[in-house]
Amino acid sequence: MPAASAQPFVGPPPLRPTNTVGGPLSPQPGFEQTQGCMQANTGDSTIEEKPWSQLALGFEQAHEQGLTGSGKTVAVIDTGVNQHPRLSLTGNGGSAVPDGRGANFDCDGHGTIVAGIIAAHRDDSTGLIGVAPEAQIMSIRQSSKLFQNKAEKKTVGDTQTMAQAITQATNSGASVINISQSSCQTIAQASNPADEHNNRLYQAVKNAFDRGVVVVAAAGNADGACQKNPSGSPTTAVLPAWFDEYVLTVGSVGQEGQPSEFTVPGPWVDVAAPGENLISLDPGSGGSGLASQIAAGADGQMQPIQGTSFATPYVSGLAVLIKEKYEKAGTPLSAGQIMDRIKATAMHPGGNNGRNDIVGYGMIDFMAALGDIVPPEHGKLPAPMKPTRLSADVIPQKDYPALLVALGGSVGGVAAVIFTAFLVNAVRNVRLRQAEAAAKTKSRRE
């Protein structure tokens, strides 16, 4: 029997303009807390060395140039963000979690890790610093796996609350929106033009884009509903990454520069960033130090911090610094120009058009993104694209057990949101590229 031919990729259905996203984000009724909140480290949580991801990306060079995210706000749409002495939190976020503790509380710990990667303040006792350490974090607590509706067998957070959260962030003045969560759906479901909740999510990201807000989202991890796409046409759509024109989607790479095998590949993956063996702020309630591992699973085993969730905030931080630089220069860039600049200056993999469906256009390059000339910004057209297929880009599948419980199933057409956090094991070292740049600078001076 001959093999079936690959079907062409089908994108999102046409957007049906809507003026509503189902009302403002508010606590969802019918949910009760079923697990205790993540607790802070009671021992010594000082980690003196700089994270490998921080060294590889080299974003402290941007800080030396005065680019720190000052005056900018990053909305973290997640499980909330705990108040930590090394974070500056705004007070205008919303919450869908019905515990009365608002957005600046994180029972799950996930959102606090994300916020720390973006905007942890400098502390001379440790090597860690956030990408944009003077940016403010607007926490929007749209999900939690620790609160369940037992009758409907689901947890807090779905595509409707995500659309509401994006709209709230846009209307509240966010410069960049970080979404380290995803809704994985079959292509058939995601392509259904009658799905009202997906359409609202589509409208929300487009509205943000049109208003100059950069939306950065995780590519998703292969687990449960998020299945790796097979050779040929993808079978799993990852939202909001699916709305690729308006969203910058991030895959993960490991410490040796290898693509992380848990990343869900797809034609919507734009770039990659470090996503294995990371360090961030202690995500527990009342935490004041750092964490390189957190308790995960029913047995509370300690696991390293890993996932496309945690690669995403590095790209959000870069978007903030680009926005800051060009606004200071009096030549602000649109959301689309910032997204294009990040993709154009990434360290491209081999193959057609310098991209593939696992790492997109490659690992981000901070100093190139902040300094290189991008032809389209000067009226020059990029080279024409060659046709590509997913088949050559898929990593062989392996059995990766989920160590972070996913949010529950969908009800009434509202697709469940799944944390894109894998806590299992820890970019290619970019010192060579930095050395080459330094050599060029030296030769020009000579």
TrEMBL record:
Localization per record: Cell membrane
Keywords: Cell membrane, Hydrolase, Membrane, Protease, Serine protease, Transmembrane, Transmembrane helix
Gene this chain is encoded by: mycP1
Record organism: Saccharopolyspora erythraea (Streptomyces erythraeus)
Keyword Transmembrane helix belongs to the record: yes
Protein name: Type VII secretion system ESX-1 serine protease mycosin MycP1
Major place of residence: membrane
SUPFAM superfamilies given in the database record: Subtilisin-like
InterPro entries: Peptidase_S8/S53_dom, Peptidase_S8/S53_dom_sf, Peptidase_S8_Asp-AS, Peptidase_S8_His-AS, Peptidase_S8_Ser-AS, Peptidase_S8_subtilisin-like, Peptidase_S8_subtilisin-rel, T7SS_pept_S8A_mycosin
